[in-house]
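Hi V.,

You were right to ask for the full record rather than a summary. Here it is.
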Amino acid sequence: MDFKVSGSLFTSAMSDINKVISSRSVIPILSGIKIVANENGLTLTGSNSDIFIERIIPSLINGEKIVEISEFGNVVVLSKYLNELLKKLPDDIHMKSDFNGSITIKSGNIETKLNGFDSNEYPKLPEMDSDNNVKVPFGKLMEAIKQTGFAVSKSESRPVLTGVKMEFQQNKLICTATDSHRLARREVHIESEIQQSFVVPSTSLSELMHLKESESSNVDIYYTNNFIVFKTANSSLYSRLIEGSFPNVQALVPSESKSTITINTKGLMEGIDRACVFSTEWKNNNVNLKIVDDARIKIASNATEVGMIEEYQEIIQIDGQNDIQMTFDGRFMLEALKGIQEENVTISFGGMMKPIVIKPQHSGACLNLISPLRTY
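Predicted structure:
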């Protein structure tokens, strides 16, 4: 293998892949990055056994020569050392490997050598059936992940809740996440004929969001029984799926409410954020919401040894009772509100100790459910 490549592009691609590689891998070769040089350019692959990321650096970008390959081949290099070295090299990279697996790297007047692994020992990527495929706009997929991923469980006691359920229906993708105390759901219109659902680890979706792709580009999603692949023009992310039965969350959404208010999203978010300053005494960042009358809502919190805060905000519209008071985890409220992009939000109260439903004022595609806290 012998090639020259743009130093900045090569370093950036290596740095992105290095993030998923664990130096403590029980499989030694997975501490390395696989580099393949062929007629298409360079293909870089890294993995931690649960996630594989593949990045292609094409020979030409917008007519400009990026990669010049003198000899095809492949090699696996220790990611930690190669990544650190590339950050410190000043110019474009000339990399060459010999039959013993030794790699020579030249940049300007600098020459270094690294030992490599036998690339034949590197795990093969899962094979995907091209018929099991759906195309989704990258921007829409990222928006759905942002508006649901925060609600996954941080506890491994129920592994299936640590992922986001991605459900494909007729021309629709529904992403759902819950930790049993809250729920976030987002519907996205797509062109699809498949009827299938998966639970994808939130860690994999976090890596997917780091891919540098245009929001207008498409991502092709392929799937098997235990793997899913997100493929863009120059990147692919392979992820294991989480086994287990995801709860029937649709049954948790209340069909009726005792009161529904419409309020400014930004103002409410800022008020909740201020109240959280005084909620740290409590395990769950307790913030109290009280509908005072037909025109106002009170946001309050207190810490015994620090102080208290309360403020009143105007209600744009109210339907139903005007005397409801409940306490919620302020952090949960903030994370739900941050994903809502409309100017106003509606909050539906089902009654004492029943979850509230948070939606954008003019759209039912995004929904959040938050259970209240007991304060006694």
